[in-house]
C-alpha cells in the first residue's frame, strides 16, 4: 500500500538541514544564553543574536530586536492580542478580528471579552475574504487592535493584509496578523505589508515543533504574556530554546531561498488534485477561492451526503494522511467554523476534506489520491439514506 502525506497544513516533516543545525546546541553549545560570565554561555548568547538577525532578515524586519522567540505560533498569537489589549486599554477596549481566524486568535478574543473588552467578529464572503471596507467601518474611537490572518489554514484564502494594515495605520490602530500558515508558502515582508505584529511557527515550514516567533515593530506597546526572568530583552521569560531556534532559523532560510520553486511545484500539484477530484466525483464543492487568492498548497472540498471523519478513516486505510480542517480542532464534533462562516449548511460542512500538498508531493501521490478517493466517497454514499433519493 502506498503511503501519501497530504496534511502539510497541520505540520511538515523536519528538514535534515534543520536537524543538523540543531544538534550542536544539544551537545557542544549547550550553555544558557543568559549566563554571560563564562565562555559557553557567551557562545550561546552570540549564536542566539545571529539567529535573531537571520530570522529578522528573512521576514523583512528592519531590526533584529523586533523578533521575539516563543514556544509556538499559538503563544505568539496570545501574546500579540493579550499584550496589545492590556497595554493599550487606557486608550480603548475594542478589538476587531474575523470569524475565520485560528482558534488561537478566536479563543484569546473570547477570553478578553470576559475581562471587559469588546470584540467585533467580521463576516467574510463566500470565498473567505475579509472586506477591508468592513474593517474600516468597524473601527471606532475605542478600537485598539485589529487582528486578521494572512492566509486561512482550512480553505487557503489569502487575505488583503496590506490594505487592512494601511487602514489600521491611518486610524492609529495596532494591526496584528497570524502568518503561521503563510510563512514558507508565499512571500512575506513585514515592512512591505505594513503590519505592526506578525506570528509564525517553525513546524509549518519544515522546522521543529515547539518553537515560534512574534515580530513586534519597534514602538508598539505590548504587555508581557510570560513573566519570570529577563530573557528576550525582558519581554518573554523562559530560557531560550536555542536548538529549536536554530532549526527554525535554518528551515526559514531554506524556505525563503526556495520559495519561488516550491510555490510553482505546489501550485501544479494543487491544480492537478483539484481538477482530478472535480472530474471524478459528483456533488462536490471546492471551498475557498479558485487560483487567484488561494494558498499554493491548499485543497479543500465538501462532499455531499457523507461525513468528513469517515472519509479520513477510509483514506487512512488506503495509506493517505489528510484532515477535515484545523488539526487544533480535530477532536470537535462541530462543523468547521470557517466553513460555517462562508455560508455552508451543517450537512455540507460536515463532509469536508482538506488536502495540503508540499514540496515533496509528487504527481504519483496526487494521482493515487485521485484514484482511491472516488471509490471511498461512493462507498460512503451507498450507505447514506440521504443519497438513495439522489440516485433515484
Protein model, in words:
It is a single chain. By secondary structure, the chain is an alpha/beta fold. Helix content is 43%, strand content 13%. The chain has 16 helices and twelve strands. The strands form three sheets. A seven-stranded mixed sheet has the order 2-8-7-6-5-3-4, with helices on both faces. It has a three-stranded antiparallel sheet with strand order 9-10-12. Helix 8 (190-193) links the parallel strand 6 and strand 7. The radius of gyration is 22 Å and the shape is globular. The two termini are 35 Å apart. The model has no long low-confidence stretch (mean pLDDT 95).
Tags for this entry?
about 400 residues; alpha/beta
Task: Give a short overview.
The protein is of the alpha/beta class and 392 residues long.
- Overall pLDDT level: 95
Secondary-structure element series = EHHHEHEHEHEHEHEEHHHEEHEHHEHH
Q: Which value, in Å, is the CA radius of gyration? A: 22 Å
Estimate what percentage of residues fall within beta strands: 5-15%
Count of individual beta strands:
12
Give the helix/strand class: alpha/beta
User: Helical segment tally?
Assistant: 16
Ranges with pLDDT <50 over ≥5 residues?
A: none
The strand line-up of the biggest sheet is 2-8-7-6-5-3-4
Amino acid at each position: 500500500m502506498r503511503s501519501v502525506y497530504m496534511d502539510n497544513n497541520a505540520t511538515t516533516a523536519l528538514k535534515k538541514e534543520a536537524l543538523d543545525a540543531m544538534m550542536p546546541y544539544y551537545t557542544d553549545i549547550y550553555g544558557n544564553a543568559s549566563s554571560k560570565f563564562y565562555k559557553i554561555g557567551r557562545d550561546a548568547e552570540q549564536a542566539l543574536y545571529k539567529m535573531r538577525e537571520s530570522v529578522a532578515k528573512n521576514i523583512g524586519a528592519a531590526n533584529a530586536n523586533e523578533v521575539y522567540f516563543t514556544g509556538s505560533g499559538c503563544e505568539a498569537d496570545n501574546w500579540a492580542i493579550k499584550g496589545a489589549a492590556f497595554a493599550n486599554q487606557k486608550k480603548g477596549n475594542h478589538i476587531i478580528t474575523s470569524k475565520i481566524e485560528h482558534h488561537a486568535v478566536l479563543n484569546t478574543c473570547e477570553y478578553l471579552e470576559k475581562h471587559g473588552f469588546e470584540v467585533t467578529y467580521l463576516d467574510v464572503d463566500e470565498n473567505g475574504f475579509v472586506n477591508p471596507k468592513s474593517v474600516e467601518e468597524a473601527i471606532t474611537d475605542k478600537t485598539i487592535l485589529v487582528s486578521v490572518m494572512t492566509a486561512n489554514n482550512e480553505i487557503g484564502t489569502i487575505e488583503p493584509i496590506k490594505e487592512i494594515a494601511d487602514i489600521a495605520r491611518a486610524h492609529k490602530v495596532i494591526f496584528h496578523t497570524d502568518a503561521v500558515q503563510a510563512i514558507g508558502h508565499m512571500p512575506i515582508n513585514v515592512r512591505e505589508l505594513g503590519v505592526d505584529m506578525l506570528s509564525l511557527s517553525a513546524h509549518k515550514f519544515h522546522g521543529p515543533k515547539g518553537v515560534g516567533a512574534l515580530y513586534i515593530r519597534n514602538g508598539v506597546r505590548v504587555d508581557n504574556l510570560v513573566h519570570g526572568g529577563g530573557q528576550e530583552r525582558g519581554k518573554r521569560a523562559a530560557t531560550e530554546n536555542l536548538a529549536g531556534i536554530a532549526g527554525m532559523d535554518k528551515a526559514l532560510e531554506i524556505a525563503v531561498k526556495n520559495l519561488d520553486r516550491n510555490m510553482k511545484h505546489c501550485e501544479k500539484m494543487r491544480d492537478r488534485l483539484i481538477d482530478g477530484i472535480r472530474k471524478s466525483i459528483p456533488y462536490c464543492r471546492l471551498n475557498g477561492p479558485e487560483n487567484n487568492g488561494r494558498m499554493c498548497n491548499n485543497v479543500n472540498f465538501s462532499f455531499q451526503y457523507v461525513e468528513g471523519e469517515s472519509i479520513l478513516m477510509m483514506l487512512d486505510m488506503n495509506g493517505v494522511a489528510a484532515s477535515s480542517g484545523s488539526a487544533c480542532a480535530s477532536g470537535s464534533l462541530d462543523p468547521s467554523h470557517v466553513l460555517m462562516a462562508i455560508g455552508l449548511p451543517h450537512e455540507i460542512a460536515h463532509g469536508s476534506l482538506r488536502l495540503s500538498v508540499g514540496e515533496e508531493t509528487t504527481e504519483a501521490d496526487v494521482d493515487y489520491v485521485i484514484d482511491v478517493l472516488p471509490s471511498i466517497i461512493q462507498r460512503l454514499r451507498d450507505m447514506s439514506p440521504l443519497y438513495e433519493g439522489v440516485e433515484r
